[in-house]
Amino acid sequence: MTIDLLAAAAEAPKNQFGFWEAMEQGGPIAWAIFGVLVIMSVGSFYILFTKLFEQQKVLNQYKDVRSSFWKTNSLKDGATKLEKNSAWRQLVDDSIAAQDDYTKMTDKMEAHDYIHGTMARSEAAINAKLASGLSFLASVGATAPFIGLLGTVIGIYRALINIGLAGSASIDKVAGPVGEALIMTAIGLLVAVPAVLAYNWLQSRNRKIASMLTGFSTALLANINSGGNVKPQVMTATSTKTAGQAAAKPAATKPATAPARPASTTTTTTTVPPKR
């Protein structure tokens, strides 16, 4: 009995319509399309993780700006508190350089515009660096489904040729090419969907960082124009906790006193005895 089962298992037909079998039937064109989609997928995930790490680094460096930068006496002292080659250090260095050129200008309005323009250019450079590579994600999300569709069209075309050569639409003639066509469509979607999601997510994080850069640039400009007198309010962890406890503590109220009752008037009647 065991020998019969082993013989039947050995004689069982192999699956001739798997993924690799379909790709082999597709030939060089199918392999080329599959290779392009794999490269696009690997590039998308590489950009996703590298840009995510870069964005998180910028966000973590902002904690140093809030905790220690504005506690210093000058911008030059504050720059030493920031990490070198960071986005926030770049803004501070550019503002210091613009402040040095500020004294060389006779027109105060032109000096203000020069500093503002310098900060805007610095912000644009940082935002451009953060956005680098996102165009590749957008291109992958837009073109990957069509590349997969190209493989689908070629697979269906090969299926029609096999039908014409065989003279009948038997399953063994069309299953391979049609399976290849469906596989290419699925791979195209699997490449495009993560790329689109990653692009939208990274873009939203870039907008958040751009807003933070704009606020920091505005604070630097106000500090320069005021001679160091204007600084944003810095809330440390201890002061924030203290402020929260003070806000949560109910205000002390004086005990309510009972309203005074009106004095009651009593009328006493005195009886005078008659004289005899």
The parts where pLDDT drops under 50 for at least 5 residues are 5-13, 235-240, 262-276
Structural class: mainly alpha
Number of H- or I-type helical stretches: 8
Order of helices and strands: HHHHHHHH
Q: Major β-sheet, in short? A: none
* Count of strand segments: 0
- Kindly report the average pLDDT value: 76
Distance between the termini: 151 Å
Region (Disordered): 235-276
Family: Belongs to the exbB/tolQ family.
Domain MotA/TolQ/ExbB proton channel: 106-211
Transmembrane segments: 29-49, 136-161, 181-202
Tell me what the structure shows.
The protein has a domain at 35-227. 74% of the residues lie in helices and 0% in strands. The chain has helices at residues 2-10, 19-67, 75-79, 87-102, 108-131, 134-166, 171-225, 237-248. The termini are far apart. Mean pLDDT is 76; it is low at 5-13, 235-240 and 262-276. The accessory proteins ExbB and ExbD seem to form a complex with TonB. One of its GO terms (cellular component) is plasma membrane. It is a multi-pass membrane protein.
What labels describe this entry?
cell membrane, rod-shaped, Biopolymer transport protein ExbB, 0% strand, cell inner membrane, mainly alpha, 276 residues
Brief digest:
The protein has helices at about 1-10, 20-65, 75-80, 85-100, 110-130, 135-165, 170-225, 235-250. By secondary structure, it is mainly alpha-helical. α2 (about 20-65) packs antiparallel against α6 and α5 packs antiparallel against α7.
